[in-house]
Structure of DUF112 domain-containing protein:
Amino acid sequence: MLIGILVGTGIGVLLGTVSGLVPGIHANTMAGVLLSLQAALLAYLDPAVLATAMFAALVTHTFLDIVPSTFLGIPDADTALAVLPAHALCLEGRGEEAVRISALGSALGVVLALPLLVLFFSLLPSLQPAIDWGIGLLILAVAGFLIVISESPGWAAAIFGVSGLLGLFTFRYSYLAWHTVGDSAVLMPLLAGLFGISVLLTASRGAMPPQEPGGPSGEECAVVKGSVLGAAAGALVGWLPGLSNATANALLTGAIGYDSRPRDYILATGAANTVNAFLALAAFYALGRTRNGVMVALSAGDVPPLTGLLLGGVLAALAAYLLTVRTAAFASLLGSVDAARLNYGVIVFVVLLSLLLSGPFGGLVLLLAVAVGLVPQMVNVRRVYCMGAIMLPVMLSSFGILLL
C-alpha cells in the first residue's frame, strides 16, 4: 500500500509540475489523460496508484502555477487575480520573493486543510441543503460589497456586468470551442484576455530589472492572518458547489487588497488554492459531489481509502514546495531581458495557445476579453471587477437561472 502511494505520488508530482509550469494546461487535463489511459495502465498499476497520481498532480499544480503567472504574466483559473501583484513584484525585481511567498502560503494551506477537512467532513453534510441555497446570496453580497467600496462604483458595476455577460456568452457557447484539454479549455482565453494580455499591453517598457534573490519577509502575524484568511476562502469554495479558485481570489479582495498589500494577498491566494484541493476531496468522499475535473476522474474508477490519498497529497505538497522554491531561484536569468520583447512574445504565445486549445471561438473570446480587460485601467478602477466573468454565471446558476 505504501509503495503504491509513493509511486502514485511520484507520477502525480511529475504531471503536476508540467501542468503548473506550462500555461493553458491544468491538473484536470492530466487527470483526463490518466483516465483515458486507465485500461492500459491498470495492467501494470493498482487503481489506488492512479487515484493517488491524480490527486498528487492537483496538489502539485496549486504550488507551481504561480511561476508562469509571476514571470510571464499569464493567468489560469487558479491565479487570475494573483497574477497582478505577483507580476508587479517581478517588474520590481522581486519575482523570486513573490513565488516563495505563494509557496509558503500553499504549504501553510496544507497544514490548515487537514483539521478543516476533519471538521467539515463531520459537521457539514447534514447542513448541505441550507448551504447550497445560500451560495448565490453569498456571491451577490461579496460582489455588492466590492462594488460599493470601489473608487468609482458606477464604473465598477459596469465592468462587473459587462465581464459577467462575456462569461455567460463564453460558457453558453463553449461547445463551439475545440476542447483540446477538456471543458476548461475555454477558460484560458477568457482569463488570459481579462488579466493577462490586457495587462501586458499596457506594461512598462525597457529592460526587465535584475531579479533579486529573497523570500518572504513579512511579520509573523501577517503570515498567520493571510494564511488563515486564504484557508477560509479555499475551504469555502472547495466545499460549495459551482465555485472555484478564481472565486476564492475574488472573495479575498474584500479582506486583503491585492494592490495595497500584494504580499499578503499572494500568500492568501496560495493557501486558498491548496486548501481548495483538499476540501474538494473531502466533499467528494462526504457528499459524493465532484468539485473539479480531478474529482470527476476519480469518480470514474475504483475509489481508494481517503487516508491513502491524503498521505499522497501531503507528500506531493512537500515535493512541490521544494520544486517551486528551486524554480524561483532561476529568476535571475530574467535580468536585463527586454521587457517589451518579452511581453510581446508572451502575447503571441498566448494568442497561438488559445487558438490551439479552443480554436476560432477561443480567439473571439480572447479578443473580447482583452477589450473588456483594458477598461479598468482607462477608468482607474481595480481589475477585480472583471471577475464578474466567473461570479455572475455561478450566481445565476445557483439561483436556478440556467443561462449556461
Summary: Residues 339-373 form the longest helix (35 residues). DSSP finds 18 helices and no strands in the chain. The chain has a mean pLDDT of 81. The chain has one domain: 2-398.
